[in-house]
Amino acid sequence: MYPVSKVWTDLETILLGTFNPETNAEHGEQFKRNIEQFHDIVAAMIKQHIKARYAVNGWSKKSYWKLFPTYLIRAENDYERAPFLDTLLDHYSDDPEYVASQVITFLVGGFHTTGNFLSWVLYYLAKHPECQERVWKEIRYALHIRNRIE
Q1: pTM for this model (two decimals)
Q2: Can you tell me the distance from the alpha carbon of 18 to that of 109, in angstroms, rounded to the nearest whole number?
Q3: Domain range summary for the chain, segments of one domain joined by +
Q4: I need a surface site. Which of 5, 56, 91, 109 has the fewest CB within 10 A?
């Protein structure tokens, strides 16, 4: 099992209340090692992205700042943009460790928030067929579906 899968599984069991890293010393230590390994993998990916994003014309990031002190210019198509990651790097920090922590926070927090939101949306749509019908009509309108499915 990959570190990401191990961490995800442990986080799920913590949320369910079936695992507490503070009371289960052996498993808790393994959990801490898995978190560190997961963080290292994310930080390494961010470092690769930073390296690619500043590799334009063989210049380093410091060269860019000397030439363009008020903003950073990147050549288009020199690396694959990652909007969320680039926003963090552009506006908050170029420290891969800090950015890795923020990325992990968003991943874990967003996963459960989205899942809970969708569960409640589906529950209330099931309880209120009139709203369900309005949502269905809006989906059909947005996707230009006409008389295919009734």
Answers
A1: 0.57
A2: 19
A3: 3-142
A4: 91
Which residues contact residue 79 at a Cβ distance below 8 angstroms, ignoring those fewer than 6 apart? Answer: 49, 52, 53, 55
Question: Which residue is it, tokens 């499915």?
Answer: 149
HEC letters along the chain: CCHHHHHHHHHHHHHHCCCCCCCCHHHHHHHHHHHHHHHHHHHHHHHHHHHHHCCHHHCCHHHHHHHCCCCCCCCCCCCCCCHHHHHHHHHCCCCHHHHHHHHHHHHHHHHHHHHHHHHHHHHHHHHCHHHHHHHHHHHHHHCCCCCCCC
Q: In this structure, what token pair is assigned to residue 25?
A: 């010393």
